[in-house]
Amino acid sequence: MDPAIFLERVRKELEKYAPIPDDEWERTDRTAFTPVRYEKGEHFLRIGDVPDKMGFIWSGLFRIFCITEQGDERIMAFRGENRFLSAFSPFLESQPSWYGIQALEPSILLCFDLQQYQRLMAGHPCWCQISRKYVENLFIEKERRERDFLTENAETRYLNFLREYPDLEDRAPQYQVASYLGITPVALSRIRKALRNKNQIS
Fold first, then answer.
1. What is the SS3 assignment for the chain?
2. Which label site among 11, 18, 43, 68 has the fewest CB atoms less than 10 Å from its CB?
3. Which residues lie across from 63 on neighbouring strands?
4. Would you say 66 and 97 are in contact if contact means Cβ atoms under 8 Å apart?
């Protein structure tokens, strides 16, 4: 795959947050962006690791998950094509990550070093704007998810999941979707059956 194709797609996604002047894009050290293949089950970040890189998903699917004190896995989020993967808070605090990021299918990432990210932030103001908007979107996503858990029932949370991740129903294992929703796989099966009976899902 031509690296220039990777980079233009990255730029297109970054410019959803703020425009990047052509001369600034040309000055960016694009050799720091490295295509990396991840096989199904391979970790982008393991629990306990201190993160040192970010990634842009060219193709594939990842889950962000944590482990409870009882040893149960909990799915925090899914990330698919044209999304960024990162562990900002552990990186900024130089602390081991309390969550992991794992490929759910064969995937290709465009990876770059978080130190490179910090150097960009110290340069042209467009990078600070992009970073701020990106973090704002993560905050909105987190707040929306918390609201769903506090105010919505499991059926509504599932319908919201289908709207948020319309292409993941057949890509993510059902037990992981159930974990994301905070219910058991059996409860998810019942919800799906009830919604099919009401013709709300296919």
1. CCHHHHHHHHHHHHCCCCCCCHHHHHHCCHHHCEEEEECCCCEEECCCCCCCEEEEEEECCEEEEEECCCCCEEEEEEECCCCEECCHHHHHHCCCCCEEEEECCCEEEEEEEHHHHHHHHCCCHHHHHHHHHHHHHHHHHHHHHHHHHHHCCHHHHHHHHHHHCCCCCCCCCHHHHHHHHCCCHHHHHHHHHHHHHCCCCC
2. 68
3. 78, 102
4. no
Q: Measured on CA atoms in the order 183, 173, 55, 13, is the torsion positive or negative? A: negative
For residues 87 and 44, what is the distance between their CA atoms, to the nearest angstrom? Answer: 10
Cβ proximity of 163 and 141 under 8 Å: no
**Tokens 């899902």 — which residue?**
201
Integer Cα distance of 97 and 68 in angstroms: 14
Its pTM stands at 0.89
Percent of the chain beyond pLDDT 90? Answer: 65
What's the fold here for domain 3-123?
Jelly Rolls (2.60.120)
Q: What is the pLDDT of residues 98-155, one digit of tens each?
A: 999 999 999 999 998 888 888 888 889 999 999 899 889 999 999 999 999 999 999 9
**Tokens representing residue 199 in the block:** 């013709």
- For 24-38, the pLDDT digits (tens) are 888 887 777 888 999
